[in-house]
Design brief:
Pectate Lyase C-like; about 525 residues; 35-stranded parallel beta sheet; about 50% strand
Length: about 525
């Protein structure tokens, strides 16, 4: 027993003398003044450096309002904002921002930002204003993590950034939990931008004017991978969850689940879409709920998204493989192995959910199942019959094809191994467009799809130059004249099997070179 006591005392003595023992630093002891007027950048830095040089610990910012420029956070430091502590980003001089961030974490490890306090970027200030005026100051992120490891951001509030709020670049092992982010003060107000790996984002509120959560891959040698996002409330007047536009290298092994997506409140209509786009009357709203984009030569592989609800969104799902070549890689990327499930969405535009590749380059292996879309409708015969441009090198956004697409539920082109299962496509208003259009789609399945019918009696499903497409487990409680329009001389092996056609007058009609012999009916109830 004596030896155990002696051993424990030695351990305690060692920890007390160790340079790694935790140290608590209060910033006001280093001359920081919480009057909202005194510029505290240098005093904050002295406090952080003293804590780091002693082996690390906690830097406490007590209640008060503190004006500051860039603060560099160091190894083993927890920068702790107590309740009613507010960091105000300086709006005075370019020199206030040594780096374009209020809190800058660079080549550091074991760093955290915690507490119940607030970082306010004052992004509305004229010196930051990017709405048609000259920007007089660099527009800083509120937190910028670059080339760092083991970083935690927890509990804090972030308000009114001058640009992207949180940026993660070439970093790994990042945790963001229980933050409250609200930023509509300027343009380019992305919420969290992720060009990093091994990232966890949970239990947070993210409400901003630009892309709310945005994955970017723009750094050679860095793959954006091993990321999970869950239990968040997300609002935006742009895209809610977006991969791209920067997509030069890769996205892999990413899950997003259990999130609520909604438009911001009406005080923040930074993008008045109803004045810019035909068919939108509701405001405010966001662009795409889920936007998966590879247009700069990179890849996307193994992405799973589930359990989302969406309101106030123009387009629930937008998946795009393109060839913008912005990175100069002179190659078309790949987009494959995606599962999206358990989605309930109400949209506000005629820009249908879509999956599109480009000629010769296909989106591959996408499963979308257990989905309910409550769509706006109001599509006309002109919308139904329009020819959709390829726009191969266009900027990837839902409106890249115009203000509408020729389906009220899903438009799919240049894709293979696409599987739709247990899908309900409902209309709030009459619409003359088919529910689903497949154009140059290979080796795919439509199973248990229930869709409201076009109001002029045209077929609800349109297949153009498809090969090896199977349609199964359909039934209708209303009479249907013709179920499928099958078109194009490249059509091969369209299989309609295990369906209830008792309310269907004619399962299909062929045109534009498609042949009856390529349509196989098997085990249907008629």
């Amino acid at each position: 027993m004596t030896y155990r006591i002696l051993y424990c005392l030695c351990i305690v003595f060692f920890l007390l003398l160790s340079p790694l023992s935790a140290k608590t630093v209060v910033v006001t002891d280093f001359g920081v003044v919480g009057d909202g007027k005194t510029l505290n950048t240098e005093a904050f830095q002295r406090a952080v450096d003293a804590c780091a040089e002693s082996g690390g610990g906690q830097v406490i910012v007590p209640a008060g309002t503190y004006l500051t420029g860039t603060i560099w956070l160091r190894d083993n430091v927890d920068f702790h904002l107590e309740h009613n502590a507010v960091l105000l980003g300086s709006t005075n001089n370019p020199e206030d921002y040594e780096k374009t961030a209020i809190l800058y974490i660079y080549q550091a490890e074991n760093v955290s930002v915690s507490g119940g306090g607030t970082i306010n970027g004052q992004g509305w200030h004229d010196n930051f204003n990017n709405r048609g005026r000259e920007v007089k100051l660099p527009r800083p992120h509120q937190i910028f993590v670059e080339e760092s490891r083991h970083v935690r951001i927890t509990g804090i509030k972030l308000r009114d950034a001058a640009t992207w709020v949180i940026r993660l670049k070439r970093s790994e092992w990042i945790t963001i939990d229980n933050i409250n982010l609200y930023s509509h003060a300027n343009t380019n107000n992305d919420g969290i931008d992720i060009d990093a790996s091994n990232v966890v984002i949970t239990n947070s509120i993210i409400d901003c004017g630009d892309d709310a959560i945005c994955f970017k891959s723009w750094n050679e040698g860095t793959i954006v991978e091993n990321v999970t996002i869950s239990n968040c409330r997300i609002a935006s007047t742009c895209n809610f969850i977006k991969f791209g536009t920067w997509s030069a290298y890769g996205f892999r092994n990413i899950t997003i689940t259990n999130c609520v997506l909604t438009a911001p409140d009406k005080e923040h209509i930074s993008r008045p879409w109803h004045t810019r786009m035909e068919g939108i009357t509701e405001e405010p709203n966001g662009i795409s709920g889920i936007a998966l984009e590879v247009v700069d030569g990179g890849f996307m592989d193994q992405v799973v998204i589930s359990n989302l609800t969406m309101t106030g969104v123009q387009t629930p799902i937008f998946i795009r493989l393109g060839d913008r070549n912005e990175a100069g890689l002179d190659q078309v990327g790949t987009l494959k192995n995606v599962i999206i499930s358990n989605i309930v969405a109400s949209d506000v535009s005629r820009i249908t959910s879509s999956i599109t590749g480009i000629p010769g380059h296909y989106v591959e292996n996408v499963t979308i199942r257990d989905v309910i879309f409550n769509t706006k409708g109001t599509g006309t015969a002109e919308h139904a019959d329009r020819v959709v441009p390829q726009n191969i090198d266009g900027y990837p956004e839902n409106r890249m094809y115009g203000d509408s697409l020729p389906a009220h539920g899903f438009y799919v082109r240049h894709a293979k191994n696409i599987h739709f299962e247990n899908m309900r496509l409902m209309l709030r208003n009459p619409d003359l467009r088919p529910a689903i259009v497949f154009d140059d789609v290979l080796d795919s399945t439509l199973q248990n799809i229930q869709a409201d019918l076009p109001s002029d009696g045209r077929p609800p499903f349109r297949l153009i130059n498809n090969r090896n497409v199977r349609f199964m487990d359909y039934h209708s409680i209303v009479d249907v004249d013709t179920l499928f329009s099958i078109e194009g001389d490249l059509t091969e092996k369209i299989v309609l099997r295990d369906n209830d056609f008792m309310s269907v007058n004619s399962p299909f009609a062929v045109s534009d070179g498609a042949m009856d012999s390529e349509v196989i009916l098997f085990n249907n109830l008629q």
